[in-house]
Amino acid sequence: MGTTPQNKYRLGFIGAGKLAGSVIRGLVRAKFCPPVEIIASEPFAETRDKLQRETGISVTTENAEIVEKAETILLGVKPGMVANVVGEIAAQLEDRLVISLAAGVDVRSMEAKANARFMRAMTNTPSAICRAVTAIARGARTTDEDMKIAHNIFASIGVVAEVREDQIDAVTALGGSGPAFVYRVIEALADGGVKCGLPVEISLQFAAQMVLGAAQLTLESKLSPNELVKMVVTPGGTTAAGLAVMEKAETAGSLTAAVEAAAKRGREMAQENL
Length: 274
Description:
Blueprint: E1 9-14, H1 18-29, E2 38-41, H2 45-55, E3 58-60, H3 63-69, E4 70-75, H4 82-88, E5 97-100, H5 107-111, E6 117-122, E7 132-137, H6 144-155, E8 158-162, H7 168-176, H8 178-195, H9 200-221, H10 225-232, H11 238-248, H12 251-272
């Protein structure tokens, strides 16, 4: 396990599974700091060893080591584990900055467990390639310097914005769960290409690249999605025929409902984890 001078680390992750692992990979890719300045605790050997091989960060099995050696602590454990993990290391967390990545666990419940400066960051797995969307929310003890630190961390791996904590569930649904909804869309579009005669590999590549291009044009053009649709549609043409089928199937409504369902589940989880 690599170490920094005085065995101190800039960032320490408690839990390094799918989401936290993506954030770590993105931070290394973005060169936010040298890998030797990041340490992560992870109980599963396969996950831990794979992450270390791929990123060069330091790893451990001990959560207490993270608190002892890292300047900023990020909680990457599953929502149902947050209360227990915080409770176990509460004495060491006194007046420390802790950024939780967990969905459905509000700051108030963490503050009741330990006297740390808790805040939340809701991000997503595209953080691994520095294309994340991240919302950060203050806690009762969060300082302006804490917000600056959190903003700098997540701005290095994508787009970041401060929101009120009562808006976090919406961000969880749109930004956190949203990639899965888009993957289903890409899969469905690729299936359509295959049914029309394209090889599977080409159809999937084209579907994914098309979604990437459309998204980038949305961001760069500053035009609304409806305006961009009008740029593609010709009355009586192929796009119009496809959109008519989508409207009949209420595709847009289904995607909106998916976000609403995910947000509702986030609110339910917050109550369960009080």
